Amino acid sequence: MGDRSAESWYPTAAYLYVLHLDGLALAWEYLRRHPGYRLDWLRHHHRPATARQVAQRWGLRLLEDPGLDARDAHPAWEPGHPAVVQLYPDADPPRDAATFSVWSLPGHKQLLHDGKGLALIARSLGHCARFALAPGLEDGMAVAYACRGSGGGGGAASARSATPAAARPRPAPSALMELHTLQALDATLAGASLREVAEGLFGVDATADWYTNGGLRSKTRRLVRRGDALMRGGYRRLARIPPPG
User: Fold this and answer.
1) Does residue 120 register a pLDDT over 90?
2) Which helix (H) or strand (E) holds 123?
């Protein structure tokens, strides 16, 4: 067993940003690691005639550079995720109607064209708000919002989750599993053995009794399998897009 401590996947600190990613950002983290997607990017991203068609196979409207992690990438997903709030000019606003103002949103803001329309992303610690801007909406206009839901108030919950009041600076317990899953996936793609993966995730001391600690081996194996499954199509569940075909 070689020394892997100098490899990029080994230090857990390099993955801390994962603790504050939402479902769409996590979906990108798994997709960008797929060898097939990386190959498609190299072959087609500079060919507009085929790039859009190739992107659709992956659930995207446009190909995005897999070398960019979720902090810098702007993947244009197929529509449907309830986290994306749609903003429209209010055709019949009341006197106290809310107005649209990009600069009133907290956090770092990014405005981009996703291949079909304008999208706005506002990121702050522990929170990411995503908006689809309707044509004709301008700064200072009275605004109405719409969001997709699965019934039972899902749409209203999605709208509330896109407001600053819902920011959660403390990551959810499940976020640590995503961090470990991505770290295990990177280690496996780099050719690490199951024990080397465990050392990177849980420390050398934890693997001292590797051959008798079946629980640690099982936990590491589950993380490796989960990462591979999410990379090979499971990311679509995170992005709320249907399977291909």
Assistant:
1) no
2) strand 118-124
